[in-house]
Amino acid sequence: MIKFPRPMAGGRSLEVDFFRGVVLLMIVVDHISGSMLGQFTLQRFAIFDATEVFVFLAGYATAAAYTAIADEKGNEAARWRFLQRGWQLYRSFLLTVALMLAMGLLFTALRLHAPTIEYTDIGTFIHEPLQIGVEMIRLARQPYLSSILPMYMLFALASPVIVPAVRRRPWLAVAASLALWGVAPLLARLLPTVSPTGWTFNPFAWQLLFVIGVVCRLHPLKSYQREDADAVLRRRKLTRIAAAVAVVFLCVRMFVEFDPGPVFKQNLSSLRVGSFMAVLWLVAMMVRQGWILQLAERLPLVVTVGRNGLVCFVSGTMISLLADILLYLATGGRPGNWSGLMADLAAIASMLAIGVAAQAWKDYRRARDRRAHGLHAH
């Protein structure tokens, strides 16, 4: 059985790692064409999908990590750590792109065709490797699932500005974030891109959810013990409103013909924000009741995936791509529910195995560093 230390103040949250693990698994199955489990993920029942949850959790976790470092070692150490994080995310983007190209090249050399192979940009890369390579290095070309990493890189680099601003003046920071979100489609023209539609995720828009995550970590709701009668009534009223909004969006998603198009997601439409905020409030109430913590303690492997988010995300892009291609080839492009379920289970098992391996490697390095530190001390 995998055991985890209890979450510490200012440190990691078991619930956040659990949610992040769930979202990473959702992202994998959502990008397998013919997935059976993909028919029951968030994108089937809400106007938003796993991306909103991931960005919000990134803001929440960033605030926790940044303030913990700043309080222990100073603001300069925190700033330097997140500059390093930005560089790490950039390298992860390049690694993801390289792995996609390698996989695309492999299947192209084997003369095996599947629609998803085209998403790797291997066709254009083979004809113009130097030009396409430079475009990828300067983030102007972001094939397939790698497109979310450049946005995260920018958020990491902006964290030394965002986190202290939210900590000191939360309302002003939120107002500035809302203003930036409002003009995001105009600012998107400043981003390097070879696509006429721009980046898949406009960071000037999506920063709103990142900032909301930072706010929720640094300025949490009061505990039940400190609530007066009026606060309890307001909370219950907000819960009813959030539930009603969530049900309305659920009905729209399930029973109304709704095809918003890529721009709806690219610039983080207000409908997506509203739908997400309603569900966020309901989930926050579940967290306060302790239900999510109990669930997380019963599913430690999912928590392990969340705790190794970057490794599992990069691996997950390859897993979903490979599962999608193999499922297409095995079924002639017409997967059934059982074949789709088998692909889902194989992909999930692979993600869990990678999470465990990444955690074991991390624990080994920590133990090795402690031993080395002990030898130097003596």
Automatic annotation (TrEMBL):
The chain crosses the membrane at residues 21-40, 46-69, 89-110, 144-163, 170-188, 200-218, 238-256, 268-287, 308-329, 341-361. Keywords: Membrane, Transmembrane, Transmembrane helix. The keyword Membrane applies. InterPro entries: UCP028704_OpgC (IPR014550). Coiled coil: none annotated. It comes from the Bacteria. This is OpgC domain-containing protein. It comes from Herbaspirillum chlorophenolicum.
